[in-house]
Write a structure and sequence with these properties.
By secondary structure, this protein is α+β, with helices and mostly antiparallel strands. It has six helices and 19 strands. Helices cover 20% and strands 29% of the residues. The strands form five sheets. Strands 3-4-5-6-7-8-9 form a seven-stranded mixed sheet. A six-stranded mixed sheet has the order 10-11-12-13-18-19. Helix 5 runs antiparallel to helix 6. The protein binds zinc ion (2 copies). One zinc ion binds next to helix 1. One zinc ion binds next to loops.
């Protein structure tokens, strides 16, 4: 019996004798099936063939990746809070060296995941550090390895830790969330709920990133309005170095206006 991991998206599944027929996350149009066919691995195999990478992404924020890439190239963040370290989002691999490093930091207070493309091996991480994983209840249908360490939360906001608040207003997935931290003028950790564009000066909201399917103007406003009451300067996005160092609140406001006017534009131009 194995907890199989989809190599295309990095999602780990409940223990089975044979791999599942296909991956529910990849058959969804927000991701895509491997054109070469469905392939699987396991955490044990990944530990032999891959390693974690660790790079600072900002003050008190350490990025965690996997080399060579597995899944969609997820990058998680260790966020140093006033009262312990929180893991924002997750990656498919936790190697022994990284586990030791995190333990040296005092372990994890909790894990919070923005949406299903970062669920990956979150249950293995939770077991290693004996900490809860916070998932918005609207994303429950995409939890492929249910576990007693997973805590589902409801509504628009949840206090995760002192100074740290989870905020959900959907968009990409119905339970897509961001994490607000009140340190140093405010930080927003967005996964791809508010996707940091390559210019690092604007953000976007998409139903499907790989298939370029946008959301409605109303949904963009919903997501932007959800973070409007919070103060924040920096935005930490979804990939390595996708960081907006300052002016983040204005970036969200302007990006949302640009999006709405583009999607509601006239066709005769
Ligand atoms: Zn998959
Ligand atoms: Zn996504």
């Amino acid at each position: 019996m194995e907890h199989y991991i989809c190599t295309q998206c990095g999602t780990q599944y409940l223990e089975t004798e044979k791999p599942p027929e296909n991956c529910k996350i990849c058959t969804d149009e927000r991701q895509y099936l491997n054109p070469q066919g469905q392939q699987w691995t396991t955490h044990t195999r990944l530990k032999r063939s891959h390693r974690n990478t660790v790079h600072t992404q900002g003050e008190g924020v350490i990025g965690i990746g996997v080399d060579p890439q597995v899944g969609i190239g997820q990058r998680a963040l260790l966020v140093q809070g006033r009262d312990g370290v929180v893991l924002w989002d997750c990656v498919p691999l936790l190697d022994d060296g990284l586990a030791e490093l995190v333990k040296a930091f005092g372990g994890l207070r909790g894990i919070a995941v923005s949406h299903p493309h970062f669920h990956t091996s979150m249950v293995d991480w939770a077991h290693s550090f004996e900490c809860p994983v916070y998932i918005h209840s609207e994303n429950r249908p995409w939890v492929m390895r249910p576990d007693s360490f997973i805590r589902f939360w409801d509504g628009e906001r949840m206090e995760l830790a002192p100074g740290m608040t989870l905020v959900c207003r959907g968009g990409h997935f119905p339970g897509s969330a961001v994490l607000h931290h009140d340190r140093d003028g405010g930080e927003l950790f967005t996964g791809d709920t508010l996707y940091v564009n390559p210019d690092h000066r604007s953000v976007t909201v998409m139903y499907s990133f790989p298939n370029y399917i946008p959301v409605s103007a109303a949904k963009v406003r919903h997501v932007a309005n959800a973070v409007e009451p919070f103060e924040f300067r920096r935005i930490y996005g979804q990939w390595w170095d996708a960081v907006i160092p300052d002016g983040g609140k204005e970036v969200v406001r302007v990006s949302a206006e640009r999006y709405v006017s583009a999607i509601q534009g006239k066709d005769d131009e």
